[in-house]
């Protein structure tokens, strides 16, 4: 089999293997959300989770409507940490929020943010510290390694929390996953608003924060990395959070990582998220795209939002049909003859107001110009639609080549990819 020999039908099966679409509706202000994952590592190190939960009554006994959560987790050095986030992060955040709403009918914005942060930090504390004493008492390295696996590997996390009553969307970001809001602008264009900042050593604000926390350690941030790690915030990665002596001891008893010689004043990473709040306008057909950094290495914010706009224009907002929701029926259309360049020209925020985000790097690595990819619309699941176009659009040879790469060679050219798209609006 050559690199260009995946049959088109088989290629589509591979792209659609992990796709999911969930209709919400019911007057909640959320129509549907689509997800998909395409692996590079084996097993895949990314993960995701979603939940629609009846909000607990406030202190006055009034219902708070529905709380909706969508999480994307970009694991590294293994899958254990991201799997733990899938299992537990929404629950930890929900419990902290419920505690806050139980004491105050209408908590202040800062208190809601602090509850979300407390949920993140409580889970990371559990991951990093809860099994340390157990491992010390065990007599086998194998069992010890299993117990602390989520602490040894690491994961970035992006969690969106939508309150249907207030129509406020909070995006909590730990690491370099990214959330972008798509909103109809004027005429036939969409605006692309980045709702999270990429938290890496390349981010000037993050680099300054880390250096301030570790004065005198001149190489704590070097070449855009924090102690050699790209994300400046993450769950797990305990070798950068444990004291050096503990890391050395666990290395002997449970295959933990060896700390670096320059490891002087841990912790160097934190799981505390940066949170943004956005007022959603369901009546305008807002949508958000949440994805691991692999997507943003392939496409810009504007390109991704433009691709979703093209997909909406082609009447794909339905499951297994061409049905369209009324919120889009009343909106102007893109011309069917428009190319990629027309679809990805949403209005832009001034540069001074845009959160830090790294530009796409993969197209140059693949040896192609971005405009060489012509977009196609052939998937009902919008997350699959984005993934197909990120990997090559109408270039069957390029997509085939990238999907057939395996092992460490695959990781050099594409990372694990996880995409979630949420459509806001009111059904008929």
Fold topology:
Elements: H1 8-16, E1 20-23, E2 30-38, E3 46-54, E4 66-76, H2 80-103, H3 109-129, H4 132-137, H5 141-147, H6 149-152, E5 154-163, E6 168-174, E7 178-184, E8 190-194, H7 204-213, E9 221-222, E10 225-226, E11 235-236, H8 244-254, E12 274-279, E13 287-291, H9 293-298, H10 301-313, H11 326-329, H12 340-343, H13 362-366, H14 382-391, H15 396-404, H16 407-413, E14 417-424
Antiparallel strand pairs: 1-2, 2-14, 3-4, 4-5, 5-6, 5-11, 6-12, 7-8, 7-13, 9-10, 13-14
Helix pairs in contact: 2-3, 10-14
Can you give me a brief rundown of this structure?
With 428 residues, the protein is α+β, with helices and mostly antiparallel strands. 35% of the residues lie in helices and 20% in strands.
Q: If you had to describe this structure to a student in words, what would you say it looks like?
A:
The chain is an alpha+beta fold. The chain has 16 helices and 14 strands. Helix 2 runs antiparallel to helix 3 (109-129). The longest helix has 24 residues, at 80-103.
